[in-house]
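Thread: Newbie trying to understand structure tokens

Hi all, I'm a second-year student working on a class project, and my supervisor (Dr. K.) asked me to get a predicted structure for one chain before our next meeting. I've only ever worked with sequences, so writing a 3D structure as a token string is new to me. If someone could post the tokens and maybe explain what I'm looking at, I'd be very grateful. Here's the chain:
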Amino acid sequence: MKVVIQRVSKANVKVEEKISGEIGEGLLVLLGIEDADTEEDIQWLSNKIVNLRIFNDENGVMNRSVLEMNGSILLVSQFTLHASTKKGNRPSYIKASKPDFAVPMYEKMIAQLETDLGKKIQTGIFGADMKVELLNDGPVTIIIDSKNKE
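---
Reply by user tm_fold:
Sure, no problem. This is what the structure looks like when written as tokens:
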């Protein structure tokens, strides 16, 4: 699994001009799923996301997590995170999972994030043409790949 995490002041995702998910201060998480992903990846990544210390403390130092500051999470599926640009100019998405595998994994990630955060998260709609709007705070953007735990 790959994620792009953005610290936001606010974010929303729309499908057909209707908001399907919206948050104030918190994290916008773009999630890419591949067939090699497991429930262990979900647990590891969810724990990492909710405990990542990228929010400012009272001294202006990034020392607080979304969990500690009672922030929100907006999770949006994004198969293009697994784009291969090795050959040519048209990306290949062959590593991105098909819906029969990806949808259950996406739903498990939602459930795990809600458990780890202790409250409901907001989401986009898997496979839909979504419009994501955000105000990146910082900007702070972190990329994490569960297969490359650096």
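A couple of things are worth pointing out once you decode it. The beta strands are 2-15, 18-23, 26-32, 55-56, 62-64, 72-77, 122-123, 130-145. The chain is about 20% helix and 35% strand. Feel free to ask follow-ups in this thread.
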